[in-house]
Amino acid sequence: AVVSVTEPSVFGYRPALVQVETTGRLTSGMTVTDFSSSVIPNALVATEVDVDRFWEVVLETYGSLAASLG
């Protein structure tokens, strides 16, 4: 989640309707995502990731933190 905020270009996003099921007997609490064009989207959902860049950002951050701690 932090990488998506600090480096949003690491991910590819698609608009979708995202809802939490609250009334289903077997699915209560589950998140339901609808990517169809017939719905009005309420969120951008990450559907792609540049894995190499993701780990580069994470490891750079850990390295910076370690260096700051001495």
3D architecture notes:
The chain is α+β, with helices and mostly antiparallel strands. 34% of the residues lie in helices and 30% in strands. The longest helix has 19 residues, at 51-69.
Keywords for this entry:
elongated; 3-stranded antiparallel beta sheet; 70 residues; alpha+beta
Blueprint (SSEs and pairs):
Layout: H1 2-6, E1 11-20, E2 31-34, E3 43-49, H2 51-69
Antiparallel strand pairs: 1-2, 1-3
| Spatial order of the strands forming the largest sheet | 2-1-3
Helix content: 25-40%
Helix-strand string? HEEEH
Beta fraction? 25-35%
> What's the story with the biggest beta sheet?
3 strands, antiparallel
Q: Count of helices?
A: 2
Give the averaged pLDDT, no decimals.
94
Number of strands: 3
| Strand-pairing-aware structural class | alpha+beta
Query: First CA to last CA: what distance?
Result: 27 Å
Shape field: elongated
Poorly predicted ranges (pLDDT <50, ≥5 residues)? none
- The radius of gyration over CA amounts to 17 Å
In brief:
This protein is α+β, with helices and mostly antiparallel strands and 70 residues long. Helices cover 34% and strands 30% of the residues. The longest helix is centred in the C-terminal third of the chain and has 19 residues, at 51-69.
